[in-house]
């Protein structure tokens, strides 16, 4: 296995004028291949158990290839027609995937496979495949299967509508130049005054993040944050209500008490009830730290507004920055002078190359033929062998995905196809905030995971294929390298060529610790929102959001906002946003294995690479972590960090 033994190569991308046809053809060819392979399994299944699984693996690889085209290019291609064509491919993928999951004849073939002679990986593929069939409803009656098919197809359309509404609803405020007081000069220079004497500030991240952090004009901050928190409203309120209803019905038809129970069954956490318990546990652990640091913010706010008795989302980032600057001796505007984008990108490649033994070789754009001129492409080698290719699409543009995420272009399968991944972010082209540097390290962690786990025989285990509530742990752990003075010294330099001082980095870490308690409470609010919306039906989502915010966040609701409408994770993560904090607990524990005085220790880094990242989904995440740590994971490291 697999049957194709030629040396795999990268996926040839089209010439600039051919993208529309290429996206359609790539999707249709891979879907046709998947259908053909499945039809062969139905009509004339191989006699050998391993051969049955091999054909199924090839069909799943083809389906994955079509899914990657639909998912990626619907979010990143500059041409709206190409994005729409990719959305159509994604719809076809979901339809075929649903049809396969409800195919009783296909299920009978796979259920009839004799597992007695299979190795551990093949046995796991078979067990997980049969579990997927049962969760799809293959054993339900005809009417129920038909309804499940309808619900699945409707969910795809709603998901695409939800994402499109967020992607295309860029809001803005317009200000006179004097109201930009406090903003970094390079940011001001990049925002020219228009013919009416005004400056436009948008809700895209390169505008809203620095503006809410540095702008001294409280009214302007409040106006922009309000616009940001009403993106895609009211359109997505209706979309969410229908999406939640579809998921509720889907779970009920399969016999689950809620969508959260259905979704959690295949995650580390195991049950919907356990999600609520985890949220409450983290809330309790973080409350003392949260209240302490919030009091510091409120005290600083009262220096400017003596009557203030509360602080909300329009002021938190600004006053947190003031506290860090005035009380913790960290000025983010000074810090950002050390982080020029090009140097950070190269520094990230150098750091991860050294840490994991990887080599990143730039590919000229005329050879890579990417979808936009700003996309940077690199071939990836390990121990002299080319193992994959990555594409970095890191700056904002019209019609592009607004957040930060890693997308697959191809999942690696040994001997069949080379792994390719895409990092999609929205960073400034000049100087970066250190928070953005941390985000870049985090997202790149997903890309490294995707590439290192891309040399398996089974597409099922390729790439970031662990339980979903472990997915963030490797990325959260890689953030630690963006906080280390010795690591940053390798690439963080100001315009005069001066390296970022170690004492400044230590101060930055102390300042970052400020607010971690209220950040955890905010994350638990998001997690509670994600969980509650999928468990309890609410006629008024904004009213329910206000209730949950009052219970879990230490900051009050900002009047007139509807944050749920652009909370993209309500789609992709559904009821499982808790996974960010769950993963962080594990990430802190895994990081405890490293020597903080030598983060590049090859023995520890190599063990982590080989025992966790390179395994993909071949074993349960808890077993991967235990293999690396030599013991089961615990809350101890996380609790200690929170208490520092």
TrEMBL record:
For this chain's UniProt record, which GO biological process terms are given? Answer: peptide metabolic process; proteolysis
> Per the UniProt entry, what species is this protein from, by scientific name?
Terrabacter aerolatus
SUPFAM superfamilies recorded: Metalloproteases ('zincins'), catalytic domain
User: Is Nucleus one of the keywords?
Assistant: no
Respond yes or no to whether keyword Transit peptide is given for this record.
no
Q: Which InterPro entries match?
A: MetalloPept_cat_dom_sf, Neurolysin/TOP_dom2, Pept_M3A_M3B, Pept_M3A_M3B_dom
Q: Which GO terms describe its molecular function?
A: metal ion binding; metalloendopeptidase activity
Instruction: Name the Pfam families on file.
Output: Peptidase_M3 (PF01432)
Cofactors: Zn(2+)
Name of the protein in question: Zn-dependent oligopeptidase
What keywords would UniProt list here? Hydrolase, Metal-binding, Metalloprotease, Protease, Zinc
Family from the record: Belongs to the peptidase M3 family.
Q: Report the co-factor binding details.
A: Binds 1 zinc ion.
Gene3D superfamilies on file: 1.10.1370.40, Collagenase (Catalytic Domain), Neurolysin, domain 3
In terms of superkingdom, the source organism counts as Bacteria
Q: Where is the Peptidase M3A/M3B catalytic domain?
A: 216-638
């Amino acid at each position: 296995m697999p049957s194709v033994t030629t040396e795999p190569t990268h996926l040839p991308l089209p010439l600039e004028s051919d993208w529309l046809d290429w996206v359609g053809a790539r999707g249709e060819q891979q879907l046709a291949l998947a259908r053909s392979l499945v039809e062969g399994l139905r009509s004339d299944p191989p006699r050998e158990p391993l051969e049955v699984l091999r054909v199924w693996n090839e069909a799943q690889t083809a389906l994955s290839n079509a899914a990657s085209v639909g998912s990626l290019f619907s979010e990143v291609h500059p041409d709206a027609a190409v994005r729409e064509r990719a959305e159509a491919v994604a719809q076809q993928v979901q339809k075929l995937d649903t049809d396969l999951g409800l195919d009783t004849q296909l299920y009978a073939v796979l259920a009839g496979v004799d597992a007695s002679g299979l190795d551990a990986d093949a046995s796991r593929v078979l067990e997980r495949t049969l579990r997927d069939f049962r969760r799809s409803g293959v054993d339900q009656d005809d009417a129920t299967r038909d309804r499940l098919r309808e619900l699945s197809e409707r969910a795809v359309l709603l998901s695409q509508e939800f994402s499109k509404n967020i992607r295309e609803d860029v809001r803005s405020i317009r200000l006179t130049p004097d109201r930009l007081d406090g903003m970094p000069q390079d940011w001001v220079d990049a925002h020219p005054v228009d013919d009416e004497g005004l400056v436009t500030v948008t809700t895209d991240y390169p505008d809203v993040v620095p503006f809410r952090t540095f702008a001294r004009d409280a009214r302007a901050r409040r106006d922009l944050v309000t616009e940001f928190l009403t993106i895609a409203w009211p359109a997505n309120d209706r979309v969410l209500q229908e999406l939640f209803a579809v998921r509720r019905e889907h779970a009920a038809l399969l016999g689950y008490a809620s969508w959260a129970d259905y979704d959690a069954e295949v995650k580390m956490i195991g049950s919907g009830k356990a999600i609520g318990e985890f949220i409450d546990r983290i809330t309790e652990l973080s409350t003392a730290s949260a209240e302490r640091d919030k009091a510091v913010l409120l005290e600083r706010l009262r220096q400017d507004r003596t009557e203030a008795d509360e602080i909300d989302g329009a002021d938190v980032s600004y006053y947190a920055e003031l506290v860090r600057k005035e009380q913790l001796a960290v000025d983010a505007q000074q810090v950002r002078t050390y982080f020029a984008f090009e140097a950070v990108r190269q520094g990230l490649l150098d750091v991860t190359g050294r840490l994991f033994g990887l080599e990143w070789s730039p590919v000229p754009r005329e050879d890579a033929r990417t979808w936009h001129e700003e996309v940077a492409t690199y071939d990836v080698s390990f121990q002299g062998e080319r193992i994959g290719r990555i594409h970095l699409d890191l700056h904002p543009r019209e019609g592009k995905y607004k957040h930060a995420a890693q997308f697959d272009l191809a999942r690696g399968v040994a001997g069949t196809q080379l792994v390719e991944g895409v990092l999609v972010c929205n960073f400034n082209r000049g100087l970066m905030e250190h928070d953005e540097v941390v985000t870049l390290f985090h997202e790149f962690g997903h890309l490294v995971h995707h590439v290192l786990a891309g040399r398996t025989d089974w597409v099922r285990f390729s790439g970031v294929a662990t339980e979903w509530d472990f997915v963030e742990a490797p990325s959260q752990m890689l953030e630690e390298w963006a906080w280390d003075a010795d690591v940053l010294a390798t690439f963080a330099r100001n315009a005069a060529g001066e390296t970022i001082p170690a004492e400044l980095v230590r101060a930055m870490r102390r300042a970052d610790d400020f607010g971690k308690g209220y950040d955890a409470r905010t994350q638990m609010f998001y997690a509670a929102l994600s969980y509650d919306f999928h468990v309890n039906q609410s006629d008024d989502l904004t009213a329910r959001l206000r209730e949950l915010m009052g219970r879990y966040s230490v900051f009050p609701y900002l009047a007139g906002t509807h944050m749920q409408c652009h909370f993209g994770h309500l789609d992709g993560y559904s009821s499982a946003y808790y996974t960010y904090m769950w993963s962080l607990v594990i990430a802190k524990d895994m990081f405890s294995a490293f020597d903080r005085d030598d983060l590049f220790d090859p023995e520890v880094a190599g063990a982590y690479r080989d025992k966790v990242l390179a395994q993909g989904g071949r074993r349960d995440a808890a077993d991967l972590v235990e293999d690396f740590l030599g013991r089961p994971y615990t809350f101890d490291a996380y609790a200690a960090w929170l208490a520092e």
